[in-house]
Design a protein that fits this description.
Elements: H1 3-19, H2 25-40, H3 49-66, H4 70-119
InterPro entries: DUF4398 (IPR025511)
Protein name: DUF4398 domain-containing protein
Domain DUF4398: 26-100
Amino acid sequence: MTFRPLLAALAVVALAGCAADPAPNEQLRLTRQALEQASAVGAVAEESAELKRAEDKFARAEADMAEQSYKDARMQAEQAELDARLAEAQVLTRKSQEQLNVLNTRITRLRKQLQLGEAQ
């Protein structure tokens, strides 16, 4: 029976801790910035599942903010930021690979020209 008051006190402290979560305004700003950066490098939600997921999570974070569910908003915003950064990295990786392919094609062409020049 001595556990009941202790459990009740812990429950009150836990609830108070949840209520004390500050609004994650800075995280929302960082997430918005990550989404904008991903779009700026060419990520498109219709082609990138990661960017689509980031946009969806960001929308949920904004809805959580409106409901003052700050802990949920922070978690959704953090996940959205990571998804947006992944989408950006994938676009940059793809573009780098395309550039590498172009350079390799040019190198191959130059080697062939050099071989033809040496043969003459």
